[in-house]
């Protein structure tokens, strides 16, 4: 049966539908980047809140600045902006319909409809999931890049911006002129210190065309940081077929794991929904949660992904069924990462690590090793290199993490250990394969990539260990080297 408002009460049994009157919702949030993750995460929390009869003036208006977002808008329009979200555990599947988004702003190259929507007094939060690459960060400096061509174009045309940040600035300017309080800007992307990064992008771009406006934004607009977590795979034929099997016709279904977490810095001068009533943590310690997640979850993904990629393993849960890879992940986490993760309020780090192992083993989510191996050149410097640095600074033994760096280097050579070709899987793939080929004879060139390793390539002990481990991986294969790591003879 087609998903839409009229059919809500006639959907197949077992599919939960909103118990509130969607027509009575009014938007308080514009969300830019209405991809799968937003619909599996923020929209679900708000749906829970509306289901409690609370805060119906905080509904979400979907939005976006790319052609793909217009495609999504058209798909959702055919079903009254309803989305199905299916939680998949190995032994159970549950589907619910999310009604928290009553509308979607038309996507236009000038972004005029988006700017108008954000200029409306009723909108008090603008939230974002525009991917890690959407923040115009210069990989060499790790900070906002004013030289990026899209940023330069927006600086020259502030009234018809093409970027998210240009549109936000134009709307803030319009609100200021109308005497309206600014909205709060909340990033929900997987970017360390996402509030600061967003603030730097908005103010950095504003400065290029209107220094005075930039100054006002700096003193008047809040950019709370948040930590978000829920594994949400892309929707492919597998997912569409699974939903069709339930008797539901959804043009853009979302599937995800049962687990979800959202930790937010409580800095919302224009007000916010009472998300603490539906399990969201508001805290001053977002950074601590974020470090925990980035080091243990995202770092853990890398630790299992590269050995699995070298063995041609397709799914994440299949990697977890490999006793050696599972033991490798567990040992590196337990002995190298956990000791350097600062304490997190009300959280037992060992239990958190155990939960990560269970989440990775969830066969129903069907997350892929290739997705986890993607974009190592951006991910290693955030998820692995800082842990090596911290272990070394504390005088600890970072053998497992350095071995993982060697396995990533071996992966970037471009073939698995069976000789199968690895298709390009990084924006810098071409350069990485060249350096990985040279590193086979001279491992030090890998750590000399300053944009990834910073000054770690100047640490003689780390360089010597990496040299030994990469040569061993090439000579004996990853399985033999990981076995020696596990029995303590490496
Ligand atoms: P998706 O591909 O379904 O959606 C991506 C969205 O970002 C789209 O709306 C797209 O138009 C927009 N976008 C991409 N690049 C952009 C740019 N340069 N400027 C403006 N908009 C841009 O992906 P998703 O699964 O929804 O994930 C989006 C982000 O959510 C991730 O990059 C990550 O930061 C965060 N996240 C995802 C997961 C997950 O498991 N999928 C988990 C935690 C956090």
TrEMBL record:
Domain of life: Bacteria
Keyword set, alphabetical order: NAD, Oxidoreductase
Chain ranges of the Mannitol dehydrogenase N-terminal domain: 28-277
Pfam families: Mannitol_dh, Mannitol_dh_C
Domain Mannitol dehydrogenase C-terminal residue range list: 286-474
Gene Ontology molecular function: oxidoreductase activity, acting on the CH-OH group of donors, NAD or NADP as acceptor
GO BP, one annotated term: mannitol metabolic process
Protein name according to UniProt: Mannitol dehydrogenase family protein
